[in-house]
From TrEMBL:
Domain named Xylose isomerase-like TIM barrel: residues: 75-229
Protein name listed in UniProt: Xylose isomerase-like TIM barrel domain-containing protein
Source organism: Clostridium collagenovorans DSM 3089
One Pfam family in the UniProt entry: AP_endonuc_2
């Protein structure tokens, strides 16, 4: 079954974001976690208690630098427990150290240790593929190293991070995703997250050929005006209605 979620506009009032999501039939929202904190501009501390008491489902998207795992795993786990979550996304980056041939192995080891902690608490981990600008966990060969070390971990496929459809196919040959980030992009740009219809991605082709049979979470990473988010969702809904 397809579940539609959206990345929260962290700069908006949280209650307004819930109202918009509910009115437009999103069943959950994605909240970012960075450097030990939930990224929500207009939410009082403790933020996780406010989110919990707001009674609208969310999933945490944790952006982790290469040396963040030992620093922030305990706080991430604490927040997940407060929220009674059984799933979490980690988006790996490497900004604090140069990327070399050993980096992906360090990352795979970090994921292994993190997943052991999460698994002990019955929490499923999704790992996101990167775009070319991040240099790590971007190529299919990188993903293979990570998932060979961590076969129980799931792939979160960010479609806007692909270079082309050959790149997409190579990723899918490593692991089929259980969760997807959706935004549009132009192939001439290394990294973009545009509203659907403003880039060059052929979503009908993607879902009818490359991701045929997909069932799982779809998270719209379209942080724009209301109408652009609504239009983006309608494009994907129509593809699934026509299948």
């Amino acid at each position: 079954m397809i579940e539609y979620g959206r990345s929260i506009r962290w700069f908006n009032d949280y209650r307004d974001e819930i109202e918009f999501s509910s009115l437009n039939k999103f069943t959950f929202m994605q909240i970012w976690f960075m450097k030990g904190d939930l990224i929500l501009d207009k939410v009082p501390y403790p933020k996780e208690e406010y989110v919990l008491n707001s009674n609208f489902p969310v999933i945490i998207h944790a952006v982790y630098d290469i040396d963040d795992y030992d620093k922030y795993n305990d706080e991430l786990l604490r927040i997940l427990k407060v929220l009674n979550h059984k799933e979490v996304i980690i988006h790996p980056v490497c900004e604090s150290a140069p990327v070399n041939s050993k980096t992906i192995y360090t990352f795979a080891d970090n994921i292994y240790k993190t997943n052991q902690l999460l698994k002990a608490n019955n929490i499923k981990l999704y790992i996101e593929n990167n775009s070319v600008i991040d240099k790590v966990n971007y190529k299919a060969s990188d993903l293979k190293i990570v998932f060979d070390k961590n076969p129980e971990v799931e792939l979160l496929l960010d479609i806007a991070h692909i270079d082309d459809y050959d790149h997409l196919q190579s990723i899918l040959e490593v692991k089929f995703p259980k969760c997807i980030h959706i935004a549009d992009k132009r192939f001439s740009e290394e990294h973009e997250h545009l509203p659907l219809g403003q880039g060059e991605l052929d979503f009908e082709l993607i879902f009818k050929k490359y991701l045929k049979g997909y069932e799982g979470k779809i998270i719209f990473e379209v942080v724009d005006e209301d109408e652009k988010i609504i239009k983006s969702k309608s494009i994907i809904e129509k593809i699934f209605e026509d299948k």
